[in-house]
Each structure stands twice: as structure tokens, then as C-alpha cells.
Design goal:
Elements: E1 13-16, H1 27-30, H2 56-65, E2 70-74, H3 79-88, E3 95-100, H4 105-116, E4 123-127, H5 130-137, E5 142-145, H6 154-175
Parallel strand pairs: 1-2, 1-4, 2-3, 4-5
Length: 178
């Protein structure tokens, strides 16, 4: 990843939805616990192979390399199942905070903001549902829609980093007194 052009400033935290953003399911509707295996070899109770989108590992590695924390904001009543699935996929250790419960995304991001000491404007958020994008944009979050059930792709991720950086720089210029 070194040698790649990286925008400055980077977000203080990147927040990911899970369903159709990190993995290609509504996990609470399409997967059945208990889960067996770990990492890339996880299967559900019906022996369905559980997977994440192809670029997720690269995105996690980028965030680790650039010291950008990751958090989860997922609207599901199946908190325990999602936590179990994140552990089985060996993803849980990459997130500083998991907000998984049935409330609006503004509640999830408020909890992340307060617990991580990060302003909304310093966050970058990915979700597949337009309603969640609209809700979180009203807070001042750089919120990015993951279209066509592709999840967060590498190209979308990099483009979004530049979008976030531009928003921060533009807001600084708007705050200057001339």
C-alpha cells in the first residue's frame, strides 16, 4: 500500500455498516447460527460459506497502516449473532467500537462520537441504505452510499477518503476570517 497517494487529512474514524457493506447479506435474515470454522472458512448451520466483500481486508489493512480506527454501526436486533459472526470471521479485533442494535444510525454515530472523542465532521461512514446516509449527513458526517450490493469497494473507499479530505479542507477555508 505504500506509494499510493493518500489524502490529508484522513478521517479520525471510519464507521462501517455490516449488512451489504462489509458482507453480502442481511446476516440476521440469510445466515443461521451456530457458525463453525474461522477466518475465511466460516460456515453457518446450513453449511453456507460466510464471506465478506473482497476489498474489506485491504481496507482494514489500509486503516491499520495509517492508524485510522474503525467502528461498526449496524441496525439489527441480533447483537449477539453479529458479534459472534465478527469473531468467527476474525474481524472484531479490527474495530474500536461495535454499535449493533435496532436504533437509528444517528444513535450509533452519537455513541461512537462520544466514546471515541471524535466530532461528526471527522467521521467517514459507509452504508448501503440511502435513509441512513441522509440521516447521518444531517449530523455533518461524510456519509457514503455503497451502491448495487457491492459493499465498500477499494475504489469507493479511496474516492471517499478524498471526498472527506476535501470537505474538511473546504470547511477550514470557510471558517477563516478574511
Amino acid at each position: 500500500m505504500s506509494g499510493e497517494k493518500v489524502p490529508v487529512p484522513l478521517p479520525k474514524i471510519i464507521v462501517l455498516d455490516l449488512d451489504y457493506t462489509v458482507w453480502p447479506y442481511w446476516a440476521d435474515c440469510h445466515l443461521y447460527p451456530p457458525f463453525s470454522g474461522s477466518g475465511a472458512s466460516v460456515r453457518d448451520a446450513t453449511n453456507k460459506k460466510v464471506r465478506v466483500y473482497p476489498d474489506i481486508a485491504r481496507i482494514i489493512e489500509f486503516c491499520k497502516e495509517h492508524q485510522v480506527p474503525l467502528a461498526v454501526a449496524s441496525k439489527s436486533p441480533e447483537t449477539d449473532m453479529y458479534n459472534t459472526l465478527l469473531r468467527a470471521l476474525q474481524l472484531h479485533q479490527h474495530f474500536v467500537q461495535l454499535e449493533i442494535y435496532c436504533r437509528s444510525k444517528d444513535n450509533h454515530l452519537k455513541a461512537i462520537s462520544e466514546n471515541q472523542g471524535v466530532r461528526y465532521e471527522e467521521m467517514l461512514f459507509f452504508d448501503d441504505e440511502f435513509g441512513n446516509i441522509r440521516t447521518t449527513r444531517r449530523l455533518g458526517v461524510t456519509s457514503v452510499h455503497c451502491p448495487e450490493r457491492n459493499g465498500v469497494t477499494w475504489d469507493l473507499f479511496i474516492d471517499s477518503l478524498f471526498l472527506h479530505s476535501k470537505r474538511i479542507i473546504d470547511s477550514r477555508h470557510n471558517d477563516m476570517d478574511y
